[in-house]
Amino acid sequence: MSKKSHFTTVTALPAGISRETVLETLHSHVEMIDLNPLVTERHPIKSPSEATPEEYHCQWFSVTDKVNYLPGGLYSGSVTFNACFHDLPDGLQSHIYAPMGLNMKGRWTLGGSLPGEPRQAVEIGLGVPKTGLWLREDVEMKVNLVMGGFVKKTTKKAHSTLVQRLVEKAHLIEAERHNNGLAEQRLRDSYPPDYHSGVTSPTPRMSYQDAKSMHSGSRLYSDDQSVVSGGSHDRYSYTGNPQIANPSNPTYSDYSQRPGVETRDSYPAVAPLFSQPSNPANFAVELPSHRESSPMELNSTQRYS
Question: What's the whole-model pTM score?
Answer without folding.
Answer: 0.60
